[in-house]
């Protein structure tokens, strides 16, 4: 049998700096040695890219605008579009991202698992990137075979109260389906986390929510409720919809949550927030000031369902994934980077994280902070993907 070893570095979107299968290779596992070599090759490639300066380490690719939920704080389902890139076009784009030096890839939407070719896309992406796949909890069990190649699956759950969660998600039974998905993926050895969005609606239960899941050895990564503050029809993607019911008004409570999570992090590896990020969020709610500048088109960028690229979804698309290598070092993009660095339009957690952590030094700091967690992870057993998948890959 195998023991799968993960080195977590504090955030699901770069949750696995190294992923390698070691310790046991049994006679009952054909192709096992080749699987080990492939895993180490990926780890080595990721380590090299992580330590190469001036690269865009993080990319979020919104593969589809199709969504089967009706979340109250979201715009995506209100503006669905069946047009999207083909499988081969996505693969071509993934090759470009690898050549640019991208390390961490998030596949989202809409719901990316609604794509019929998602298994092929995940398999291809996971060869080169730390690959995270988001699901609202409705499709993970149905697509469980496809998810075995992902480095992390993030399931959206916002409350331990089924009625409250279903109200937020806009679908009856959403909580029950998502909880089942988390349990089944965890039991099958697939790396899964829960991803609640912190809002005024669930603010006072976030700590209990966290304790519940980490006690079951399920990691938790958080988003902050945010909305698109500028009504620009040419945005790359419309995501957040303003809703007073969700806007955080109890700033003191948010500060206390940050303090408590920092304390809990010292004892539990399953809180996927770096201390530096928590301190930045605390300072934002304590003083109203942003102790970071946006690093869009430096550390990260976004791709939409038809391949258009922007520094973040709030800004106009600038190029396409296929033209990006030609435009990456142009004066136009350099000017946009300066413009974005002064932008203070949003509090989307992923953009904050990417702005704070997106350099060789930051990558080393994250690895150093989480080394204790890595040692703990070496003690855990995780099942590898099925023997059938291993042999077909090799």
Structure notes:
The structure is a single chain. The two termini are 17 Å apart. The longest helix is centred in the N-terminal third of the chain and has 19 residues, at 32-50. With 394 residues, the chain is of the alpha/beta class. The radius of gyration is 20 Å and the shape is globular. It contains 15 helices and twelve strands. The strands form three sheets. The chain has an eight-stranded mixed beta sheet with strand order 7-6-5-4-3-10-11-12, with helices on both faces. It has a two-stranded antiparallel sheet with strand order 1-2. It has one domain (3-393): Aldolase class I (TIM Barrel, Alpha-Beta Barrel), CATH 3.20.20.
Order of helices and strands: EEHEHEHEHEHHEEHEHHEEEHHHHHH
Query: Kindly state the mean pLDDT as a whole number?
Result: 82
Proportion of residues in β-strands: 5-15%
Number of strand segments: 12
How much helix is in the residues?
25-40%
Going by CATH, the homologous superfamily would be: Aldolase class I
What is the CATH topology classification name? Answer: TIM Barrel
What structural class do you assign from the helix and strand content?
alpha/beta
Number of helices: 15
What is the CATH class?
Answer: Alpha Beta
**Low-confidence blocks of residues:** 1-36, 371-394
User: Could you say what the CATH architecture is?
Assistant: Alpha-Beta Barrel
Span between termini: 17 Å
The strand line-up of the biggest sheet is 7-6-5-4-3-10-11-12
Form type: globular
């Amino acid at each position: 049998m195998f023991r799968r070893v993960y080195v977590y570095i504090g955030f699901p979107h770069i949750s696995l700096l190294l992923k390698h299968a070691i310790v046991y290779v049994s006679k009952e596992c054909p192709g096992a040695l080749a699987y080990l070599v492939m895993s180490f090759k990926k780890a080595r490639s990721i380590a090299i890219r992580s330590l190469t300066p001036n690269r865009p380490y993080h990319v979020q690719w919104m593969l589809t605008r199709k969504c089967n939920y009706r979340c109250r704080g979201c715009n995506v389902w209100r503006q669905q579009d069946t047009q999207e890139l083909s499988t081969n076009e996505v693969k071509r784009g993934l090759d470009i991202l690898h050549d640019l030096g991208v390390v961490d890839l998030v596949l989202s939407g809409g719901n990316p698992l609604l794509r019929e070719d998602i298994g092929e896309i995940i398999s291809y992406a996971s060869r080169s990137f730390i690959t995270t796949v988001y699901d609202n909890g409705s499709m993970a069990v149905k697509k469980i075979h496809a998810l075995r190649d992902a480095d992390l699956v993030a399931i959206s759950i916002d409350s331990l109260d089924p009625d409250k969660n279903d109200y937020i998600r806009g679908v009856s039974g959403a909580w029950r389906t998502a909880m089942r998905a988390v349990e089944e993926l965890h039991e099958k050895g697939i790396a899964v986390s829960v991803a609640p969005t912190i809002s005024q609606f669930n603010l006072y239960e976030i700590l209990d929510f966290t304790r519940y899941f980490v006690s079951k050895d399920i990691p938790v990564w958080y988003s902050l409720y945010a909305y698109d503050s500028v009504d620009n029809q040419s945005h790359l993607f419309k995501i957040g919809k303003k809703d007073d019911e969700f806007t955080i008004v109890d700033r003191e409570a948010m500060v206390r949550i940050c303090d408590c999570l920092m304390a809990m992090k010292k004892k539990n590896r399953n809180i996927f927030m770096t201390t530096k990020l928590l301190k930045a969020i605390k300072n934002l709610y304590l003083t109203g000031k942003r102790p970071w500048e946006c690093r869009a088109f430096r550390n990260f960028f976004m791709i939409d369902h038809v391949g258009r690229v922007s520094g973040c979804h709030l800004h106009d698309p600038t190029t396409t994934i296929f033209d990006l290598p030609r435009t990456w070092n142009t004066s136009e993009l350099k000017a946009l980077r300066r413009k974005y660095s002064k932008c203070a339009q949003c509090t989307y957690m992923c953009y904050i994280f990417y702005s704070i952590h997106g350099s060789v030094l930051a990558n080393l700091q994250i690895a150093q902070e989480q080394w204790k967690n890595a040692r703990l992870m070496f003690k855990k057993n995780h099942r590898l993907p099925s023997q059938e998948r291993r042999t077909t890959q090799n």
